[in-house]
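Sequence, please.
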């Protein structure tokens, strides 16, 4: 049984059919693999067809979920390369669209939509862990600027990023959730030190970032002072949604910044040859590679294997259906706590796919790198899978969110919730 993606909803309505026809005509006229990557992304981004669900005023077409998915399907039918993907498009852009001023949107969205600017996320800290509200990076006001000091960790692609979405503590004398503010920070400045972290995949998609009196203008504060936690929840809701269209765009390996001067065809070839485990995992390519391995090793007709494969397919169908329902129920266009079920389910599917894929290869599953089937790409994916249960909020955090915010269960006791942050032990490091 093939594990094909869930079909795109029907485009039979007149309105959707008209939109799809318009998109198809545009792709027919404008798409060519011989264009440079920069030229294609510029055309696609400014046309609104790259991110059709974004507002019309800001590089989109303002389409609802089913119509936007139909446009993406039409783009794929024409074989056209997708828009930029990664943190820039699936985390930074939705948050800027939700909370940004017109000035911020005008300054930052063009570079995101056209792939010129790479962004990173600066949330996690070594001493905060899953309790992100205990973060200690601080921002101190200095006239029209803020001075940033502290450390962030597990920042994907920070070594290539032009900008970062940052949360920092601006008021230590209020409870921890209320003294946080959200900033859009320029990474190319003195006082920002990015140090890559090597993972067991052998790659370095993640980083630790040190801020030593780096500066960010108050005009680059996103949302109101002290409301950074609420803004960050919008970012995290998008991060936890595996159906977020920003994840499935055209390119953006976290092992390097895209070379916009390359032709699209050359970039696609390079991307296929050098894709890193992180980008491969979030692109959804593991399912296709799994199918190929199953066919090559001839295990699809084994009864137990077939049963487990069917269970994974059922889980993936449920994931897609749940995602569509969550989007339909979203308030104000923002994902709700339902996306935690998607994040948790995605972690489970990843583990099951990894285990069954390695089983399908038999003894070849013990090999690695170039000696392994498919050049070891599935093995890299297998090594990366544990990260999916941690990144974007651990499985345990997702279960808490589901219980408290979706099912209405009592919150876990937290005596620190109403205390000023300055009075918490976490804010006072022991004397050396």
């Amino acid at each position: 049984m093939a594990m094909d993606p869930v079909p795109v909803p029907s485009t039979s309505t007149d309105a959707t059919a008209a939109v799809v026809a318009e998109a198809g005509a545009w792709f027919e006229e404008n798409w060519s693999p011989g264009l440079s990557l920069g030229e294609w992304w510029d055309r696609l981004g400014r046309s609104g067809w790259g991110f059709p669900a974004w507002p019309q005023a800001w590089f989109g077409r303002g389409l609802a979920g089913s119509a936007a998915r139909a446009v993406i399907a039409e783009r794929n039918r024409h074989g056209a390369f997708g828009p930029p993907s990664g943190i820039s498009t699936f985390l930074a852009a939705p948050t800027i669209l939700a909370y940004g001023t017109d000035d911020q949107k005008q300054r930052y969205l063009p570079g995101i939509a056209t792939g010129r600017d790479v962004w990173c996320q600066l949330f996690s800290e070594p001493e905060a862990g899953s309790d992100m509200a205990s973060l200690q990076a601080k921002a101190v006001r200095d006239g029209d600027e803020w001075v940033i000091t502290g450390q962030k960790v597990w920042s994907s692609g920070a070594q290539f990023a032009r900008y970062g979405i940052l949360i920092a503590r601006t008021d230590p004398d209020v409870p921890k959730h209320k003294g946080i503010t959200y900033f859009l920070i320029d990474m190319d400045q003195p006082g920002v030190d990015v140090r890559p972290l090597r993972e067991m995949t052998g790659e370095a998609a993640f980083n630790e970032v040190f801020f030593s009196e780096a500066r960010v203008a108050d005009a680059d504060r996103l949302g109101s002072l002290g409301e950074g936690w609420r803004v960050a929840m919008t970012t995290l809701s998008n991060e936890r949604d595996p159906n977020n269209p920003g994840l499935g765009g055209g390119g953006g390996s976290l092992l390097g910044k895209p070379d916009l001067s390359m032709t699209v065809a050359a970039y696609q070839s390079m991307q296929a040859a050098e894709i890193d485990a992180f980008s491969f995992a979030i692109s959804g390519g593991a399912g296709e590679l799994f199918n190929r391995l199953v066919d090559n090793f001839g295990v699809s007709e084994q009864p137990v294997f077939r049963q487990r494969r069917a269970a994974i397919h059922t889980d993936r169908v449920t994931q897609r259906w749940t995602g569509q329902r969550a989007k339909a129920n979203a308030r104000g266009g923002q994902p709700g706590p339902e996306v935690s079920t998607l994040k948790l389910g995605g972690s489970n599917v990843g583990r099951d796919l990894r285990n069954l894929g390695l089983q399908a290869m038999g003894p070849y599953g013990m090999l690695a790198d170039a000696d392994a089937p498919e050049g070891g790409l599935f093995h890299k994916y297998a090594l990366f899978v544990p990260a999916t249960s941690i990144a974007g909020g651990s499985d345990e955090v997702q279960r808490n969110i589901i219980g408290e915010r979706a099912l209405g269960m009592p919150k876990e006791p937290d005596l620190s919730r109403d205390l000023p942050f300055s009075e918490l032990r976490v804010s006072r490091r022991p004397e050396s």
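The first helix runs from residue 14 to 30.
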